[in-house]
What we know:
By secondary structure, the chain is mainly alpha-helical. It folds into 2 domains: about 5-75, Arc Repressor Mutant, subunit A; about 90-130, no CATH class. About 50% of the residues lie in helices and about 10% in strands. It has 6 helices and 3 strands. Helix 1 packs antiparallel against helix 4 (about 45-60). The longest helix is centred in the middle third of the chain and has 13 residues, at about 45-60. The chain is elongated and about 50 Å long. GO terms for molecular function: DNA binding; DNA-binding transcription factor activity. Keywords: DNA-binding, Transcription, Transcription regulation. Pfam families: HTH_20 (PF12840).
Amino acid sequence: MDELQTIAALAALAQTTRLQTFRLLVESEPEGIAAGELAKRLSVPQNTMSAHLSTLTSAGIVKKERQGRSIIYRADLTGFRATMLYLLQDCCGGNPDLCEPLIEKLTPCCQAPASADNPIGRHRNDRQAP
């Protein structure tokens, strides 16, 4: 992740419909949602939703997959994590006590503890079957 990619991701989320879309996609992980269903849920014309999804995809925080005649969109949690980690990379000048409240707020949404491979932890819907 670099500065330009981070700016693109933040700019993509700096619009009401795109932010609502991204939140819906995060909630729907790992199944994803078809573009038409997203437009319907947010009461947005399909061509407008298509433009928003293109912006989110180009920013690296949404991915798409064709399934038959539908295109299913999913939050790109890896891209989103990279954006957040870029912002927090030098968190609080190396003073972990200052970042602790932020980490505590993020922890409940994640099932698995952070690790070297997954610094934020696993998303609540990324659980593996027992």
